Amino acid sequence: MMGPDPSLVYRPDVDPEAAKHKGSFRNYTSGPLLDRVFTTYKLMHTHQTVDFVRSKHAQFGGFSYKKMTVMEAVDLLDGLVDESDPDVDFPNSFHAFQTAEGIRKAHPDKDWFHLVGLLHDLGKVLALFGEPQWAVVGDTFPVGCRPQASVVFCNSTFQDNTDLQDPRYSTELGMYQPHCGLDRVLMSWGHDEYMYQVMKFNKFSLPPEAFYIIRFHSFYPWHTGNDYQQLCSPQDLAMLPWVQEFNKFDLYTKCPDLPDVDTLRPYYQGLIDKYCPGILSW
Ligand SMILES: [Fe+2]
After folding, report:
1. pLDDT at 227 over 50
2. What angle do CA 215, 219, 222 make, to 5 degrees?
3. Of 51, 101, 122, 126, which has the fewest Cβ atoms less than 10 A away?
4. HEC per residue, 59-91
5. In angstroms, what is the span from residue 218 Cα to ligand 1's centroid?
6. 57 annotated to bind ligand
7. Cβ atoms within 10 A of the Cβ of 56, count?
8. pLDDT at 10 over 50
9. CATH numeric code, 46-277
């Protein structure tokens, strides 16, 4: 589904007050959107292999798909509803502004962090370049080693993944050295890694924490599930608190009260002009 379904934008079955309680997010066992979510993960966990991820790095590593500013990319996300997300069913650009505003309230002195909120999901423009949702959205996990227990639907979605029949890729460490560092790990392909690469290619002048948060914000099996410790370096453990701090706002600012985007735009345009101006290569 590429456009927002107007009948789903307002969800009368969700009590906005109840939705603010933490326990009601990331519910993968029940809820009105569950079939869509499971289908996305089944496809992802079947087709995300070492060869597949390498082919996507090659395909998108030239940044020849589109020329556009950050704000144009934010607006493009209005055409996208994330089919892996059991919590929201409204256009992604609202989520970008909600996350950014949550961070701004809690960290008023860190303007780079506000901008991370706006930027973090822009890699989802991949879906608008024709990529299937299972190669764009959802939680990420390392390919090239056995999936660990906290991966969503771990026991019911990997049986057709050919890497798990391959002895090089199916042990706990798989193709990696112990504590090699996440920057040497090949993550399942999606909007996190793509946006990280876009930021590097276009030389965003944001601090290293910003690059790191965006690259790993969907790696729930690590930052929330506490798995994959055997791949982490001391640098990863030093960065983890930043990813976790970001995640609070990514998750708990999701609510049906949609922000007034037009009044927020000038502030964020100022941050874009400061850290990532001009027309970018995507
Ligand atoms: Fe995301």
Report:
1. yes
2. 125
3. 51
4. HHCCCCCCEECHHHHHHHHHHCCCCCCCCCCCC
5. 6
6. no
7. 19
8. no
9. 1.10.3210
Name the nearest CA neighbour of 139 among 112, 118, 157, 125: 157
Q: Is the pLDDT of residue 33 over 50?
A: yes
| Dist. CA 117 → ligand 1 center (Å) | 10
Output the CA 193–ligand 1 centroid distance in Å.
10
167 CA distance to ligand 1 middle (Å): 31
Residue 18 Cα to ligand 1 midpoint, Å, equals 23
The Cα–Cα gap between 177 and 143 comes to: 14
Structure confidence at residue 93 as a pLDDT band (50, 70, 90): confident
Mean pLDDT, range 125-154, rounded to an integer: 96
Place of tokens 């989802």: 124
Residue 3 has pLDDT above 70, yes or no: no
Domain ranges of the chain: 46-277
218 is in an annotated binding site: yes
To the question of whether residue 35 is assigned a binding role by annotation, the answer is no
Residue 250, annotated as binding a ligand = yes
Whether the per-residue pLDDT at 132 is higher than 80: the answer is yes
Q: Which residue has the tokens 């506000």?
A: 114
137 CA distance to ligand 1 middle (Å): 7
Confirm whether residue 200 is marked as ligand binding: no
pLDDT band at 23 (very low <50, low <70, confident <90, very high): low
